[in-house]
């Protein structure tokens, strides 16, 4: 097992888990008070499936464009997890950063990672 492949697949799974979990929770928030009980498990299921898919795809070899997409998604996932950990552990970060800004940081990290991978391959 290649460590880079495994870490990339873990990052993809984390990014998809956070995105799907948040999307389902927000979508159901107006309808039910238990929206997180549906959103978190559905995000976990889709995140695990995405991580397994990313691992298999990266291990078997994919096109350069698809590999860049997977690796940049992993970078965005790790950026979101890092900001959420800091948000949870450091009170000053919690006061300065909202959950909406965490998504913006993850999207910016995804874009920067994609551009860096494109530049590196040229």
Beta-strand content estimate: under 5%
The count of domains is: 1
* Low-confidence runs: none
Number of strands: 0
Q: Please give the share of residues in helix.
A: over 70%
Strand pairing plus helix content: what structural class?
mainly alpha
Mean pLDDT level: 83
Count, helices: 5
Shape: globular
Rg computed from alpha carbons, rounded to a whole number of angstroms: 15 Å
Distance between the termini: 28 Å
Q: What is the string of SSEs from the N terminus onward?
A: HHHHH
Could you describe the largest sheet, including whether it forms a barrel? none
Organism: Natronoarchaeum mannanilyticum
Pfam families: DUF8147
Protein name: DUF8147 domain-containing protein
Transmembrane segments: 33-58, 70-90, 102-119
How would the blueprint of this fold be written?
Layout (H helix, E strand, L loop, with lengths): L2 H27 L5 H26 L3 H26 L1 H6 L2 H23 L1
Helix pairs in contact: 1-2, 1-3, 3-5
Describe the structure.
It comes from Natronoarchaeum mannanilyticum. It holds the Pfam family DUF8147. Residues 2-119 form the DUF8147 domain. The chain crosses the membrane at residues 33-58, 70-90, 102-119. Keywords: Membrane, Transmembrane, Transmembrane helix. The protein has 122 residues and is an all-alpha fold. The chain has one domain (3-121). Helix content is 89%, strand content 0%. It is built from 5 helices and no strands. The longest helix has 27 residues, at 3-29. It is globular, with a radius of gyration of 15 Å. The mean pLDDT is 83.
Briefly summarize what is shown.
The chain has helices at residues 3-29, 35-60, 64-89, 91-96, 99-121. The chain is mainly alpha-helical.
């Amino acid at each position: 097992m290649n460590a880079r492949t495994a870490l990339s697949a873990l990052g993809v799974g984390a990014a998809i888990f956070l995105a799907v979990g948040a999307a389902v929770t927000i979508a159901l928030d107006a309808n039910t008070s238990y929206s997180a009980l549906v959103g978190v498990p559905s995000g976990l299921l889709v995140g695990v499936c995405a991580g397994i898919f990313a691992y298999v795809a990266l291990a078997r070899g994919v096109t350069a464009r698809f590999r860049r997409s997977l690796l940049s998604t992993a970078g965005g996932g790790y950026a979101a997890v890092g900001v959420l950990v800091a948000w949870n552990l450091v009170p000053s970060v919690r006061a300065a950063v909202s959950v909406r800004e965490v998504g913006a940081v993850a999207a910016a990290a995804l874009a920067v990672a994609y551009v860096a991978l494109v530049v590196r391959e040229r």
